[in-house]
């Protein structure tokens, strides 16, 4: 029983880690593709459509 | 917006006016957006876009930087002329203009208005700050102004939303302006040359009449050599211009000033007709007496530093209670996660990795809020410009402007808006110097790092009976940043970016009671940003770090042996030789590397690493874990007051912020300067920390 819990916990944790890495790489890629940093929100922001209408 | 209607067909209104006259306040009022407003010239430095409905028509509204005239040259002011003359590809010139005028400063505002009217674009004047004219001791006859300038003047109080309806309905009733008559007169010989040049520009350079009209004035009055325009104009135009210059020379008029003078003569006459002074001018007001103290050669400095000291003292004491509250909330969360999820990797990931990392950073939210409350207060009251004024003497020793001090002061919040604010600096080299040193000012992201270390290792005793030692250490860190920035600027100004000393001209804005709404909106937005960061970047880093600190796994051993065996442990040991001279252990090193992304990641990283390392023991706060931390070989504590100081010095000097690098790249158009900046700051940080460590050891021995 304990072994199974440990096993599942390990699998789920690794999946979370994997998901995080995928999401982080994606957002880095997206930022570099749009290349437009948003100065208003003081961040290197991803310029989504909604974002660019609120401030350019 | 309807998906079928193409964007192009929307008309554009541009907000134009002098700096600090309330354009952005009006923009926010019209569009419902929340762009930054502040009581000093140069808050807005680039174009911002929003939308409104006038009648049933959707119109784009542009908020623009303030400018004193259309011949100004700093990057922010150039945005205005570029837009008005349609020089930006993809952005046609505006169809309508709202000219925002500060009613208490009309004399100066009308000058720019007359330049705008020359453009022959339909214009409505928002006569703003009408609530202050009594105080200023003037009465304004708006119908006379309307008669003189031929455009409607709408009295307004933008900060209270008074007059916006009238402003918009004035647009709906605006008669089409086929021909505005330019009423100011040039002396005869100048007028003839000017008219000739206008026709030539229209014919040869395919300019519109208003653009040619404006350009001809610039070309005729330019102090530059005609040959310096050879890239922009064809040779026939330039030959004619050369001829004009010498003709005007012969007639004896001063071509450099004649346009400004002629225009001023007219606007001043119009001003005299429409504005009556109810109290004598130049009477000493209460504002003048306050200014006499705040900008005093000695008292000015004393007050500046007292203000700073009070600010940091309160950040430390007041923020403490909410911080402890947040800290214990995260503690409880971690504990309940540990009871819900049985022991294992998932429990460790959530309770130690995520909550340990994100929680450690979020705890500092109250301090950040207090910092922004104070900075907002300084910006809104008008003190910011006074600080720039008193700092001008220091800045000029460095070879910079008092104007450069505003970007530096803004960098206390964040280097990014600080770097943007350098757009108000006209001289390219001075601007570059300011950009290069701005990240040395301690920004809000350093605050969590400083205050974690200070709270853990600086004894909380009172100095002189009223200043707490922690606050003194914190202020010293801010001063270290400021002094290093000034010294670096000095070195840059006397070597690679040599240039003449600029002359400082800056308008001191009137004092105003800060608007609470404004300040709170700003604080609210900053906290959202901070939390968003914690929920994305810090969360991501914590999860990845948990993985790197847990794998490869070791079957046996204590949790700290397991940590040493992990990827993080191995990488840490590899970089240890570099860190040794600074007195740092490998865990601090991992913190420094992961925080290259963003400084507060350091706190999150330590939170995650120590939580994993101390997995065997009962829950403890990050502060307690750091105080307990021992070197496995020598058994001595890893952290001492000296180590804490060294880490802080490192963070003061190092450029640990990816977003800043990106903004510098954009503002300088290339990788050269951000790369140089990153290298010099990292070297400086390493050397500075090394020296601190050596001196510390020497004192201790
Ligand atoms: N009393 C009074 N204050 C106002 C009014 N409108 C704006 N203000 C204040 O004037 C200051 C400047 O406002 P901003 O909207 O930032 O001015 P701006 O023209 O955008 O300034 P720049 O972006 O620097 O060119 C702020 O402190 C506002 O709160 C008004 O109608 N009455
Ligand atoms: Mg503005």
Can you summarize this structure?
With 56 residues, chain A is mainly α. Helix content of chain A is 70%, strand content 0%.
Q: Which outline of chain B best applies?
A: elongated
Tally of separate helices of chain B:
30
Order of helices and strands of chain A: HH
**What is the CA–CA distance across the termini of chain B?**
72 Å
Mean pLDDT of chain A: 64
> Hetero groups bound?
guanosine-5'-triphosphate, magnesium ion
- Sketch the major β-sheet of chain A: none
Residue fraction in strands of chain B: 5-15%
Descriptive account of the structure:
The complex is a heterodimer of chains A (56) and B (701). Chain A has 56 residues and is an all-alpha fold. Chain A contains two helices and no strands. Chain A has helices at 2-34, 49-54. The longest helix of chain A has 33 residues, at 2-34. Chain A is rod-shaped and about 45 Å long. Chain A starts with a helix and ends with a helix. Mean pLDDT of chain A is 64; it is low at 34-56. Chain B is of the alpha/beta class. Among the domains of chain B are: 12-179, 3-Layer(aba) Sandwich (Rossmann fold); 188-252; 516-700, no CATH class. Helices cover 59% and strands 7% of the residues of chain B. Chain B has 30 helices and ten strands. In chain B, the strands form three sheets. A six-stranded mixed beta sheet of chain B has the order 2-3-1-4-5-7. The longest helix of chain B is centred in the C-terminal third of the chain and has 35 residues, at 516-550. The N and C termini of chain B lie far apart (72 Å). The interface between A and B is medium-sized, with 26 and 35 residues. Bound molecules: guanosine-5'-triphosphate and magnesium ion.
